[in-house]
Amino acid sequence: MKQHVVSALVENRAGTLSRVSGLFSRRGFNIDSLTVGETEDMSISRMTIAVTGDDSVLEQIIKQLGKLVDVIAVRELDSSSCIRREIMLVKIAADEKTRPAVLAIAGIFRSRVIDVSPSTITIEATGDIEKLNGLLLLLRPYGVLELARTGLVALERGSLVLSIST
Description:
Elements: E1 2-11, H1 16-26, E2 31-38, E3 44-53, H2 55-67, E4 71-77, E5 82-93, H3 99-108, E6 112-116, E7 120-127, H4 129-139, E8 144-149, E9 153-156
């Protein structure tokens, strides 16, 4: 089983998210990540859905998604032809002794320090999943107090576009 990324353009209205996610759960797919946001057209939202599962079942889900009234366009994004990013906020325990080491790690990963208190540092990091997991691995020994991740967003590289006419 491998991770798949599905991108869908959907009508921006109540109930759409429930209908789309319901298709995945009925087929026994756990959604690893789901992000939804308006596109340049306020009446249309883009869903980026990361799931781990069997290729043939995912193919059927994509076909069924395409039949939903609220779904305008849908397709799987090939990992070799798309850009994937996620944003992570992480609050780390950091006193005056550990603060320099935490700041150095954040710098190595090109992260931004967005809040500092006498006992904590909050870092914002953007990148692919591997980069964010690597950052977390190095920060965990200092004490991760809170963690929030946006979930995966993805677009195809170059001139490939998921559009209404797709």
